[in-house]
Automatic annotation (TrEMBL):
The keyword DNA-binding applies. It comes from Patiria miniata (Bat star). This is RecA family profile 1 domain-containing protein. Belongs to the RecA family. RAD51 subfamily. The keyword Protease does not apply. Residues 87-265 form the RecA family profile domain. One of its GO terms (biological process) is telomere maintenance via recombination. Keywords: ATP-binding, DNA damage, DNA recombination, DNA repair, DNA-binding, Nucleotide-binding, Nucleus. Signal peptide: none annotated.
Length: 361
């Protein structure tokens, strides 16, 4: 506290302010810059007895001193000439069709939610992202490992091993030798919100600081929040969600890494839910969580099957008839962009195969 006070006094002296304004501030003996900024111009005028013009200058100078985050114009963002922390890039999914659909992949930085019913392919897609993030930036990755936080099931290590073997086939010999795919995925099993918060606050930042990690996956947020709070504790739950979301955003922005949060679905109980055009399943955790995420992708299972190896889009649901499952047929799944700052609302289809998630043209 004493150090803070000394810092404040020293920084106050450094401000390029008229000595008259400085003297008035010192006379009032403000505790910190935040005390000055939290007062209205009128209050500040009354306490310092400075005229309105001087108060305006004081507020402007202190604000400039406090706000050090880089900013950029829309043109600088567009040309990519802004500060590195403001630049936007994409993490490729490892499938050209899905990358095309997502206009490059998963937006970085920011929180992308992958919601969907059970067995929709959420975990498969996340695991594939954990592999593609390790590739160099020229190859669509972010040249780093991933943290995978499991809150639902045990991490499917066997399946990851199978994905790694197939993923390596796509790489050239040098890249294949350089990438230690299995060694760069840090897996954590958590069952309580407090453990998750501790992990995000203390353990992940350590890995991020060493640049070992370039992707954070929480599979899933819903599992923890749905069981720890009863329906009557919505406000309490919203508050915890908000603080979790803010921490994830901070890490994402500070270290320029994408954060993927898996979410479950819940039945749509709104007044229009009987309307067949309305969504029957909606992502869980309500509006409080929806407001914290940047992109929402919804995965689902369709009633259609595809012969293994086919690369065509299934017929539109309203035109198609359901096919019977054959031995070499794989279920077709859908990926819908519910909202995203850079994508229109659209749906594409994909299948999950031994080699991973593959989009259909
Ligand atoms: N080795 C595999 N080969 C083909 N399909 C697989 C394989 N492993 C999992 N799948 C498919 O992925 C589905 C599970 O997807 P998953 O991502 O775990 O679901 P969730 O959305 O619940 O996380 C399974 O139902 C299966 O169809
Ligand atoms: Mg899963």
């Amino acid at each position: 506290m004493i150090t803070d006070r000394r810092n404040y006094d020293a920084e106050m002296d450094d401000l390029e302010l008229n000595p008259r304004i400085l003297a008035a501030c010192k006379k009032v003996n403000f505790a910190s810059f935040s005390t000055i900024l939290s007062l209205s111009s009128a209050d500040l005028g009354r306490r310092t007895k400075l005229p309105a013009n001087d108060v305006r200058t004081l507020l402007h100078t202190v604000s400039e001193k406090v706000y050090t985050n880089p900013s950029a114009t829309a043109l600088e963002l567009y040309h990519g000439t802004c500060h590195q922390s403001l630049r936007v890039s994409c993490l490729r999914t490892g499938c050209e069709v899905l990358d095309g659909f997502l206009r490059g992949g998963i937006l970085t930085p920011g929180i992308t939610e992958i919601a969907g019913e059970s067995a929709a392919g959420k975990t498969q897609l996340c695991m594939q992202l954990c592999l593609s993030v390790q590739r160099s930036t020229e190859n669509g990755g972010l040249a780093g490992g991933a943290v995978y936080i499991c809150t639902e099931d045990v991490f499917p290590s066997k399946r990851l091993h199978q994905l790694i073997q197939n993923f390596q086939k796509k790489l050239d010999a040098t890249e294949c030798r350089q990438l230690k795919l299995g060694d760069n995925i840090f897996i954590e099993h958590l069952s309580e919100i407090d453990q998750l918060v501790h992990c995000i606050q203390y353990r992940i930042p350590l890995l991020l600081k060493q640049s070992q990690v370039k992707l954070i996956v929480v599979d899933s947020v819903a599992a923890l929040f749905r069981c720890e709070f009863s329906p009557g504790e919505a406000a309490k739950r919203a508050k915890r969600l908000q603080s979790l979301g803010a921490q994830l955003h901070r890490l994402s922005r500070l270290h320029h890494v994408p954060v993927i949060c898996v979410n479950q679905v819940t039945a749509n109980m709104s007044s229009g839910s009987l309307n067949p055009n309305q969504r029957q399943l909606i992502p869980a955790l309500g509006l409080a969580w929806s407001n914290l995420i940047q992109t929402r992708l919804m995965l689902g299972r369709t009633a259609y099957k595809l012969s293994s190896g086919d690369a065509v889009c299934p017929p539109r649901p309203e035109d198609a008839t359901q096919t019977q499952a054959g031995t070499d047929e794989v279920p077709v799944r859908s990926m819908e962009v519910v909202f995203a700052p850079h994508l229109p609302n659209d749906t594409c289809y994909f299948v999950v195969e031994a080699a991973g998630v593959r989009g259909l043209r």
